[in-house]
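INTERNAL AUDIT FORM
Audit reference: QA-55
Scope: verify that the stored structure record matches its stored sequence.
Auditor: D.O.
Record contents follow.
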Amino acid sequence: MIAVYLVLINLCGFWVMGADKRRAQHHKWRISEDRLWLIAIVFGALGVWLGMQTFRHKTKHTSFQYGVPFLLVIEAVLIGIYYSPFDL
């Protein structure tokens, strides 16, 4: 069940980055940075990062440039610990 959640939240993060980029290009209502961060924080950092790279969106924002990869590493470590066969 956790794996399904991780896939869905990362697909959501990827989609939201693409949607926000399209909205920015068409001068329409934007998705807030707080919402983008929320998705990244709840284990969607991989999807947000892939969306950043694919759509070239938020790549010049220092907070996203360094913050999302930092979150991605933290989330990867936490997932690794959770799925570790060793008692940690």
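Auditor finding: record pair retrieved intact. The chain has a mean pLDDT of 95.
Action required: none
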